[in-house]
Amino acid sequence: MQTLHSLRTTFGQHLAEIYPAEEIDSLFYIVAAETLSISRLQVKMNLHLVVNDLQLAEFQRVLNALQGQMPIQHILGHAPFYGFEFEVNEHTLIPRPETEELVHLIITQEKYRKQAQVLDIGTGSGCIAISLAKKLPHANVEAMDISTEALAVAQRNAEKLDAAVRFTQFDILNWRKWEGESRIYDVIVSNPPYITPTEKSEMSNQVLEHEPHSALFVEESDPLIFYREIAAFAARCLAADGALYFEINQYLAVETKAIVEAQGFSQVQILEDINGAKRMLYCRR
């Protein structure tokens, strides 16, 4: 007979060599709340509860996956972002709080626009595009990604959240061949790949082994290739008063700013995230 209390102890014992104690505790309460369909507070107040065989099997499944350092979001199949729940899997990046900050910045600064034309480049799970569509209901939101698998996830998220987003499969590095090149946008946003191979040593195995490398990494020899091409695309496809938003590599903020300035953008601002890292770039035509 297993209680929630004994399962919490089991999690602590089996995960102690992989995660800090505080994180193990957090993971346990996330799993327990999900498995029992109750709140985390209710879990904490009812650690004496006995779990049934099906629930016990689910706890064991999750524990095994956590021992393999699979992200909890992939194990459960979803992740929170900007007040919504998004399906995620091995084909999509797990939405990060820093990206929520980028979305909040866009909503705050662009909510004055009526029927804004918005494009999200490299949409992944669709978290940016869908959140903007939900929070800017008068905007027309489009999103593109090179990965058909990621776009399938994004489409399911849009349907589940009743968000009107038009998705397109396309490699932005080939933007000069894009049939939609004549479209004009008011807002373009992108969180493109920007991590260099030398930064891998700073990353956890959870990320390195379970998230799509094509959405994370760039070549050491040309780490800003996506910013250069997207800035050139935006210089041609943004309206006269259009705005460009990037999530950026904190170590290459100055170089990224120089790229957008070279394309004629003005009012270029580098903004820090909640952790004090230079994480967002904003500019206008």
UniProtKB/TrEMBL annotation:
Under PROSITE patterns, the record lists: N6_MTASE (PS00092)
Q: Does the keyword Methyltransferase apply?
A: yes
Give the EC number(s) under which this enzyme is classified: 2.1.1.297
Q: Which Gene3D superfamilies does the entry link to?
A: DNA helicase RuvA subunit, C-terminal domain, Vaccinia Virus protein VP39
Its recorded reaction(s) are: L-glutaminyl-[peptide chain release factor] + S-adenosyl-L-methionine = N(5)-methyl-L-glutaminyl-[peptide chain release factor] + S-adenosyl-L-homocysteine + H(+)
State the InterPro entries in the record. DNA_methylase_N6_adenine_CS, HemK-like, N5-glutamine_MTase, PrmC_N, RF_methyltr_PrmC, SAM-dependent_MTases_sf, Small_mtfrase_dom
GO BP terms: namely: methylation
Outline the extent of the Release factor glutamine methyltransferase N-terminal domain.
14-77
The residues that the entry says bind substrate are N191, P192, P193, Y194
EC class of the enzyme, as a word: transferase
Q: What keywords were assigned to this record?
A: Methyltransferase, S-adenosyl-L-methionine, Transferase
**Domain named Methyltransferase small: residues:** 113-202
The record's Pfam families line, in alphabetical order, gives:
MTS, PrmC_N
Q: PANTHER family given for it?
A: HEMK METHYLTRANSFERASE (PTHR18895), MTRF1L RELEASE FACTOR GLUTAMINE METHYLTRANSFERASE (PTHR18895:SF74)
Q: Which NCBIfam families match?
A: hemK_fam, RF_mod_PrmC
- What role does this protein play? Methylates the class 1 translation termination release factors RF1/PrfA and RF2/PrfB on the glutamine residue of the universally conserved GGQ motif.
The name of this protein is Release factor glutamine methyltransferase
